[in-house]
Each structure stands twice: as C-alpha cells, then as structure tokens.
Amino acid sequence: MAEVKKGSISRRDFIKGTGLAVGGAAISSSVLAVACGKPATPTVVNPGAGENTTTTVTKFLCPYDNQSFDTLAALKAHLDSAHMGATVQASELTKFTLNGTPVAIKIKEHWTLNWVIREVFMMTGGTKVSCDEGICGMCTVIMDGKAVLSCIVLAVECEGKTITTPEGLQDPKTGELHPVQKGFIQEHGWQCGYCATGNIMTAKAFLDKNPNPTTDDVRQALSNNLCLCGAYEHIQLSVLEAAKLMRGG
Amino acid sequence: MVDLYVPTFGVGPYKVIGTRKPSPTAADRVTGKAMYAADFRLPGMLFARSLHCPHAHAKVLSMDTSAAEALPGVKLVMNYFNFPKVFIEPEIYHAGEEVAAVVAVDIDTADKALLLIKVEYEKLPWVGDMIEAQKPGAPMVLKDTKSNMRITTGGFFSELNAAGLWGKRVTQEIRGFGDVEVGFKESDVIVEVKDIRHAMTKGPAAHGLGLTTDYTRSEANKLVTFYTDSKGLYADRNKFAAILGTPIGKARLISPYASGLWGGVMLGVGNRRERSGPISAWASYTLGKPVWHHFNMHEEEVRSCYKCIQANIKIGFKSDGKMVAWEGYYLDESGNQDGSAEGSCERSTPMLAYNRHARHCKLTAGRVASNRLIVGDYVGYGTLHGQFCAEVAMDYAAEALKIDPVELRKINCMQKGGFDAHWNTALAECSAEGHRECLDAVSATTNWKTKWGGWDSIKGKTGVIRHGIGVAIKTHTGGGWAGTAMLCKMFPDGSFELVTSLGDSGQNRPQGELMAAAEVLGLPYERGTIMRGSTDHPYSIMLGGSTGTWNHGFATWEAAMNVRKQVLGLGAELFTPVPTDLNLLDMDQGGVFLKSDPTNKKTYTNVFARLASRVDANGKGTFENRAGSFEVAGYAYRRAPEGLIIPREKGAAIWELDLDTETGEITNLQCSTSDNMGRAVNPPVIENQQTQGAHHGGGWALWTDKTWDPTTGRDLTYNWIYEYPATHMDVAVKMHIVEIFGDKSNPWGATAASEGQPNPHGAAISNAIYNAAGIRMKQSPFTPWKILEALGKV
To answer: What part of B 663-702 touches A (C-beta under 8 Å)?
Structure first.
C-alpha cells in the first residue's frame, strides 16, 4: 500500500510506500502481503487547499505496472484482469520473524531468503549478494542461531524461523552497536567493505557459541567467508576483539 | 611545535598522522547502511539482462527478436541493428560479448525473453592463446592488421648527467640505455631464462552486479544519473554523456562504495566495447524509467580482467654480484583490444628496481592480440607480471653466482646514491631507499639465513613433505596522469569537511585525507566529514594509492592550509596587540590561541563572527571568504609534475611453504611482507593493503588458473570455485611497515601502498618451491599437476 506525503517524502515513506511497491514490481504481488505491522494510512498534504487543511487520500499502487487505484477492490480487480489474479490468501503466506518483527509474505517456490530480504523487504544495504550460489558468504544471515548463506536458503524453509540480518544487530532501544560491529570497526576488518556484514553475521553466530576463541578457531569459523580485498588478518583481529568486548572488555 | 606552513615530509611529531583511525564510513559498513551500486532500488525501476555471444569470433548477420518483444512484461529489446551506438559493431571478438539486451518489468521476464531471441552468426576464425597467436598463419584478431604481435615504443636514454639523471630521451622500439653487448662482454656471469610466464585473473567484483541509469526526461532538467561501481567516474561520465548526446554537466555518476581490485572497475576507460553502461543508459533514455542492467556473477566474470606476460630475460653480473647488463624481451597478451601494459615491465629492471649498478639495459616489449576477453588489469597494470619474470630470473642468477638471493637483491636494488634511470628531475624528490630495509625486515622475522641454508641445502632435502623458503622484492610506480581537486571547509563549531570524489583505496583513502586535514587544522579527526563518491564533487583521480599519494596528499594539505591561514588570520584580530606573524598562533578544538600563552584562547564562535563583520562600505566582503559566519573554505587543485612517475613502492616478501612431492600440493603457506611507507599515515590501512597483496599475489600464482574451452573459446572458470581466491585458511601473513622519513611524494612523507602490493609474491613462492624441491616453476599457476610434471612424476 502506498503512503505518500506530497511535498515531503521521508525515507520511511519511501521505503514503506513507493520503494516497496516498486520492489514488488520486480517480484510480483508479494508486496500486498507484507505484514510488517499495521497497514499505514496514506496521507496527502495538499498545500493548495488552504493553510492548516489536510486532505487524506488513500492510493493503491499496482506492484506490476505502478497504476494507481482508489480502493483495494479496484486494485484486486486490476490484478485479476491484468496480472492473472495475483492476490493471496492468508493460508498461502510464509511466516517468520525478521529482526524481531513477525512477518508474513507470499513467496514463489524458487525464491531464496536472500531474494526475499533484498527484493521484497528492500533491505539491500545489510544482506549483500555476490556469487548467489553459496560460495562467498557475503549474504550470511543468522537463522535460529546459526549462520546461513541466504542465497542458498529457500524462502519456504524460513517458515517459523527467527532470522537476524545486520540491520537487526544493534540494540533496538539504544541503537548501540553490537560488540561484533564494534570489533570490526576498531580493528579495520575490511577494505572495500562488501564482505563486512557477512563476516559480522558469521562471527556473531560463532562467538555466541565460542566466546573465547583462538586465532585458528576464528580462521576455521570464517573460512566460508571470502574477502576479495584479502583483509583476512584484520578480520581475524576484529573477531578476537569482538570476543573480548562480548566478554566484557 | 611543528611549523605547518611547509610540508614536513614525515618529520613529526604529529598528533593525528600515524594513529589508527577508523574509516569515516565504518558505522555504515557494519550496520548495513552502506549502499553499493547494486543495492539501489528506484521507483519504477526496470531490469535489463544481456544475451552473450557463444562464439569466440563471429559476426551477427541478423537477429529475430519478435518473440521476445511479444512476451508480456518486456519493454524493449536492444541489439546492434536498433542501437548501433550501444553495440558499436556487429563483429564479436570474444565469447561472452553482449549481442543483445532485454529490458523488462522483472529479471525473470527478461531472462525468459533472452531465450526467445534468434541470432544468425557468421563464425569467423579465432585464436585464443597468446602463444598460438604468434605463430605464422594464425587468424588475425584485429581488423586491418598483418600480425597479432606488435612491438611498441618506449624511452631510450642517454647523456647521463652529474646528478645521475638521463639528459636525453628518444622514443623508439628499444627501451633502456647503454649498450648491452658491451655490458655482456664486461660480465663474469651471464644468466639467461626463457619463456617465463605469469598470468593473472582478477576475477569478478564482489559487488559488481550491474549498473543503474536513471534518466529524468523533463525538458527543463534532462538529468541522467548512473549508479555504478566504477572508479573512473569522470571518464565514464564523459563517455556516457557522449553516447547519449547529453551535456556532460547533465550527467551524474554515483559510486559511493567501490573497491580497487576486482572486476571492471573502470567501465569506460580502456574498454571501447564496454556495453553494460550504454545498455542501461539508452534503455533508460528510451523508456523514461530507471533501468538496472543486472549481471550475475558469471557475467561479471566476463567483465573482469586477465593478463599474461611472457618474457625472456638475460642478465650479466660481475662475480661479486654487481649487475652489469639486462636484456629483456616481453610480450603482453592484450586480448581483443590494442591497449595494454607491456611498458610497465621496465619497472622491475635496471630502468628502476635494479638501477644501482647496471649501466646497460635493452628492453623490447610488445603486445599480442587474441580472441579472449578484454585484457587489461588495474592491479599493477603489468608491473605484477614483469616483476614475477624479473624476480624468478634473479633467483636463477643468485644460484649461478652462488650468492644469497637476499644479498644479491640488496647489492643491486635502487638506493640513495645510485643513479636514476628516469628522465625527470622531479623523480629525485621521491626516495630511492627502502628495498634493503624491507629485505632486512623480512629476513629477520623469518630467520632467513638459517632456513634458506645456502644453495647446496636443496640437495639435502628428502622426504615426502619438503619445506622451502623464497624471496622477492616489489617495485611499482604510478603515473602522474591526472590531478585532484579538494575543497576543505571549517565551521564555527570547530568541525570540518572535505569534498572531493576520492575513491576508497590506497594509503590516502578517505580516512587518510581526513587525518591530514585534522592534523593541519589541529582539530579532532572525529570532527571531520568527507563528502565523496560522485561526480557532484570536485574532480579527483579517485585512486588513493599510487598517484593519489601525491595528488591527494598535496591537494588536501594545501586546501586545509588555506583554511588554517584564514582562520588564524581572523583570530589574530581578536588579540591585543594583533600578532604580526601567524606563526605565533595555533589552533585546536577549543579555538585560536597564542603559542606563547595557550590559555589565551579565542573560540571559533568569536573567530567566525569576524567573517560577518568584514564588509566594506559598498557592502562587499573584504575577506577572501564572504560566507558570513557559516564557514571558511579553501580549495586546491594539485597535479603531479609532468612526467613524474610517482611514488615508488618498495618492499619485499619472503614465503615459506611445505611441498608434498607425492601429490604436488602446497600447504602451510606463510608470508612475511614489508613495505617502505615513508610515513604510515594510518597503519591498519597499510596492513590491509599488505595482506591484500599477499593473498592476491599468492592466489594468482598458486590457484587462479584461467581456462577456456579450446573448441569454443568460452570461459570455463567463471566463479570462485574455479578461480579460487585465498581464504582465511590458506595463507598466514605477517606485515611489516618500514618508515623512512623525508620522502617528498607526499606532504607527510607517505609513499604508496597500492597496486604494487601483490608484485613479489608469485616469484617468492616460485623461489620457495625451488628451495623445497629443486624444481624451477617459471610459469604460473603452480598447480599440483604442473609441480608433479616438474618432479617428473606425471
């Protein structure tokens, strides 16, 4: 559903509204079923209507072709006629917890978790994609406490799971960085940085189980995460520093 | 107190330079806020996918796109016949070149449509190997040529002056100086090594998954924005603007995060048939929507770079190890474009690295075309390969002379007091020292003398697993072919900002520039911000290493110094009496103060308030900066002197390994690497560069074996399983930073930590293999099969 504030579109508006709808355009109608909280009420502030006057207008964008409709029914009718009935039933939704928030989405069978994170939820900054075939580790997320390669985990496997991405590592109340994030900053654990979030997620899952590792433990644990800039030694130092911080400094 | 009004070239003490500051974008990197080119999603975005030619050399005769165009969701099908500016010509020169593109509402639809395109090709003769391409009767790769091989020209020097510099340079097909025939007659020992080959495949970029163009078609503001991973933003902007017929000023390139080492980092530079950008640009222009031209990793590989250099090297020495003459013949595989880097081989010869004693040098260098992907690398640009060939040959020489290979290099490497084989007096500003100190550093840490054990020790090694140790040096220079513009601003709250389009690489990457400005301004590093990563910012060469060490270094220093002088000048007026010399003043986080009385401090709020008051009777500001009390700004553009090859990277590496003589496998790899950094601006940045060099250089020598299908010319090694990069488990690296202050390559005495980093490692590994098992590996990669062949076991 689109949420548009004419004249002042915030980042939140963009992501929740237009951005998501456009993302949906790339991946079919799943946007309709994204359940990240209550549906927002779109608002248009009409500056021409006089001072202190606000007009609320609800618009529904087709995720395929960006056509705008005034009612959900009209949009559904459009989807039925133009896009072969792309609406969904609740029973068809895949439900899991993403960074602490329950979500439910309509997926296609061949979608990977990486595709869902990046193209459905539009969280392209944290969970990267590179090889897209399980080699490089740059797409690593944590699923039920284990580091997994999101590019080779199918979305259907996520039913009932708890998934954490780099966006979910910070303290939700204070915004304070997780010790693993701090460790990577302090010890310069990257060069170009594209592998950094994947390394951090692998390290987080590893350190949760092994809080006092040796350098060789770290090398072994992160052996599936490529760093094409070859910053491996500082990545190892970063994980060791993170372990120290997690133990209380 | 350091006088900051002249560059100090590393002679501190400094407050910020030399400390370990984090990247200014560190928090974004670890929280998922760092958006790379492939991470942008724009409203209404469409998706382009490419069809690739399956033949190594062919001509597209016709194309039936009707079925693809009829597929629901397809918006546009592009090929040479409807977009000749994008596809340039119907002829294809290597397997994998793009012949068509589909733009659709999603990637799945675009991929389906590609399968519906029918192409009629005329297959043409091809040659996919630089050795085969040299043979008589080989198919011609490039049009209107009679040979795939072409000797290129370089500088031949004469008239050595008293300053140790050549007075005359003539461009001709032989590079060098002196007379090698005379030199070889004077030599006691002559070593000749033929057919040395080093191939390197850079592999795909981790984040190079495409390029997005957003063309806003309003008549009032025809603005086209490219989201790219390119490091050649300005060159690419000119190219794309020319293709679209758009004024350059209406084209913006955004590349907030990019690395320097992988993939097609410069889309428009040196790659005349680069089509990904033009496809995205023209599709966006035609359809009026943002278009992401998406590559998967295998397609990204097609864009990545490969290069092989083949060399014959002959070196003459006196019996005491002093080099007399060097003759080299270098051929550089240039792929299907006539642009390459064979000239870079000269930097590992007496033309630079070994210019201490040798007075005779003759280099012949050329290019060999082949029907392989666009060949050119942006790591070392040929110095990597030349150095491998040189350092393998030097190990042969050390054995022939019965001299410790570390000592042979120390005898002959460039150093202070030697003569210089280049022609520009400005080069003398850059230190020639460092190789010897770096060799000492890695020798000490590895206990070289004992572990190497002398030339006869090789014969005594028995058993299945044999330990070996080898050494090589690194040398690299960057050309001063472009400059850097830097804008520095300071604000009334004591914070500051740099604005430039600097990339994120090398010793002078963004934190290095912020540290430099903080040092000049006396402000905390953490109070600084750097705006960069797009053509919206002042021009920069983008590279923070190599040439950027000079350009960025001096531009930042000068811009920040401009601000410092203005702020101190304003602050001076607040003191009674007004100081007559700004050198009497200093500034820090709290404000401007007298050096003689730091407690007498004027806050920046008061200092900046002077700006607003400095208005003459006509209402015009009398001060250089008229921005009221908002900011003080300084701008500088600096470009290295014409012809200056700067700055010299100097270092050394020693590798140890275990070689399994039954399987040919090499394990337990340990690398000790060192660099003369002049002054290390930010040590962890250099350490990361060093480990990069070790992992890359080692990986290219050991594992990345590029293979093409001999029947079709198609790339068979298209991902990181085949092109195996080093991992945490493969190599352990010890880093050593050697600091020798006074190098004038940079205001802080810094030298480059950049492209030359991988240079020594392949040869050091080759030499370690010889030390382990007595086999000379002079052609990389050193696969188990090749090692078993050398051992006579297969």
So the answer is: 684-685, 687-689, 691-696
* Distance to chain A for B266, nearest Cα, Å: 16
Q: Do B30 and A185 touch (CB under 8 A)?
A: yes
Mean pLDDT of B180-195: 98
Amino acid at B95: A
The whole-angstrom separation of Cα B118 and Cα B79 is 12
φ/ψ region of A58 (left if φ > 0, alpha if ψ in -120 to 50, else beta) reads: beta
| Edge-to-edge order in the sheet of strand B645-660 | B465-479, B645-660, B666-676, B731-738
From CA A183, how far away is CA A206, in angstroms rounded? 14
Strand order in the sheet with B91-92: B91-92, B58-64, B118-123
DSSP run (H or E) holding B37: none
The Cβ-side half-sphere exposure at A100, using a 13 Å CA radius, reads 8
- What is the 8-class DSSP label of residue B777? -
**pLDDT tens digits, residue range B430-455?**
678 899 999 999 999 999 999 999 99
Q: Which among B32, B297, B685 has CB closest to A197?
A: B32
Q: Which two tokens stand for residue B258?
A: 């990019």
CB atoms within 10 A of CB B116: 17
Whether residue B206 and residue A197 make contact (CB cut-off 8 A), yes or no, is no
Rounded to the nearest 5°, which phi and psi values hold at B154?
-155, -165
- Mean pLDDT (chain B) is 88
The answer for residues whose C-beta is within 8 angstroms of residue A198's C-beta and 6 or more apart is: A128, A136, A137, A138, A139, A140, A225
> Cβ B47–A127 below 8 Å, yes or no?
no
A166 to chain B, minimum CA–CA distance in Å? 6
Tens of pLDDT, residues B542-587: 665 667 788 888 999 999 999 999 899 889 989 999 998 889 999 9
pTM for this model (two decimals): 0.89
Q: Give the mean pLDDT of A10-32.
A: 31
Q: Kindly state the tokens that stand for B176.
A: 């060098």
B50: helix, strand or coil = strand
* B32: closest chain A residue by CA: A126
Kindly tell me the burial class for residue B642, based on how many C-beta atoms sit within 10 Å of its own C-beta (0-12, 13-18, 19 or more): exposed
Beta bridge partners of B333: B368
Tell me the H-state helices in B162-275.
Answer: 180-186, 233-244
Place of tokens 């039954």: B662
Report the gap between the CA of B31 and the closest CA in chain A (Å). Answer: 6
B506 close to A (CB below 8 A): no
User: Side-chain half-sphere of B213: how many Cα atoms within 13 Å?
Assistant: 28
Task: Please state, in angstroms and rounded to a whole number, the distance separating the CA atoms of residues B98 and B170.
Answer: 42
Instruction: Please report where in the chains the tokens 């644990």 appear, as a residue.
Output: A221
Contact call for A166 and B45, based on CB within 8 A: no
Look at A228 and B262 and tell me if their CB atoms are within 8 Å. Answer: yes
Are B603 and B591 a contacting pair, CB within 8 Å? yes
Phi, psi of A104, rounded to the nearest 5 degrees: -145, 125
Instruction: Measure the CA dihedral A180/A184/A189/A193, to 10°.
Output: 90
Residue of A28, A136, A234 with shortest CB distance to B688: A234
For residue B268, the model assigns a pLDDT of: 47
Neighbouring CB atoms inside 10 A of B589's CB total 12
Angle, alpha carbons A235-A236-A237 (nearest 5°): 90
- Name residues whose C-beta falls within 8 Å of residue B775's C-beta, 6 or more positions apart in sequence: B769, B787, B790, B791
- Terminal Cα-to-Cα distance of chain A (whole angstroms): 46
Contacts of B733 in chain A (CB under 8 A): 232-233
What stretch of H or E contains B67? helix B66-70
Within 10 angstroms of residue A113's Cβ, the number of other Cβ atoms is: 28
pLDDT at A12: 31
Chain B residues whose CB is inside 8 A of the A124 CB are 35, 38-41
Task: Please check the confidence at residue B308 and state whether its pLDDT lies above 80.
Answer: yes
